[in-house]
Specification:
Layout (H helix, E strand, L loop, with lengths): L3 E4 L5 E4 L4 E4 L21 E3 L5 H4 L2 H8 L2 E3 L2 H9 L18 E4 L2 E7 L10 E6 L5 E4 L9 H7 L4 E5 L8 H11 L3 E5 L12 H10 L4 E2 L7 E3 L1
Parallel strand pairs: 3-4, 4-5, 9-10, 10-11, 11-12
Antiparallel strand pairs: 1-2, 1-13, 2-3, 6-7, 7-8, 8-9
Helix pairs in contact: 4-5, 5-6
């Protein structure tokens, strides 16, 4: 089986490899874009949380408790999840990790990056996930554009970037397209759009901006519930 990605709406993505199921920001209940509830998650090995706003922390704790998945998050969010019932031995690195740090989980390497956004505890982050076969996925988290994206693009050969385009709370389509140029990513999947009326409602403007600012980046526009082979 090849690597696959499933978009569950908003910032909620599932990476499926031949050996692992990795959830990022698993917000199901209350997510107007989700096509299923968290009760449909029968297998999860690793759950990554970019920050502890409700629409990103989502059902991470419940999923970890139900499936026995390991949770990965910045130290303060990891501590919050521990207080909510996630066992210490189920937390990546025991206490979480921090920006710039890389940890390994069953052949997958996870590097934490900064994200320019607010959070209740700790800092909002993104993740560069290098799968077992070397395929590299960058989930930017909730963020505005920042110049250091160029350094992450130099340090990692990013096969797929997942970037917000909704505006208001994160980058808008133009900023996200320029971010792709900085990241030098081969492909991009836009997220954090269409979930609420105030956000960008489709990917049309992002498609145009991408052609103008990062024409070498291929757009992979997904629909909630859709699965794409990587």
């Amino acid at each position: 089986m090849s690597n696959q990605i499933i978009w569950h709406g908003h910032a909620n993505f599932e990476l499926v490899t031949p050996n692992l199921n990795i959830l990022i920001d698993p917000w199901f209940e209350g997510n107007p874009s989700a096509t299923q509830g968290s009760d449909a998650v029968s297998k999860a090995d690793l759950v990554l949380v970019t920050h502890d706003h409700a629409d990103h922390l989502g059902q991470a704790v419940e999923i970890c408790k139900k499936t026995g998945a390991t949770l990965g998050a910045i130290v303060e969010v990891a501590s919050k999840c521990r207080s909510m019932g996630v066992d210490t031995e189920r937390i990546l690195n025991g206490v979480g990790f921090n920006i710039g740090g890389t940890v390994e989980f069953k052949g997958v390497k996870i590097t934490m990056t900064q994200a320019d956004h607010s959070s209740d505890r700790g800092s909002c982050v993104g993740f560069i996930v290098t799968l077992e076969d070397g395929y590299c996925v960058y989930h930017a988290g909730d963020t505005g554009i920042f110049a250091t994206m160029q350094l992450w693009g130099e340090l990692y050969a990013i096969d797929l970037a997942i970037v917000p385009i909704g505006g208001v709370f994160t980058m808008d389509p133009r900023q996200a397209a320029v971010a792709c140029r900085l990241l030098q990513c081969r492909k991009v999947t836009p997220m954090h759009w269409g979930s609420f009326p105030v956000l960008e409602q489709n990917t049309d403007r992002f498609r145009d901006e991408l052609k103008a600012h990062s024409p070498d980046t291929e757009l992979v526009a997904m629909k909630p519930g859709e699965t794409v082979r990587l």
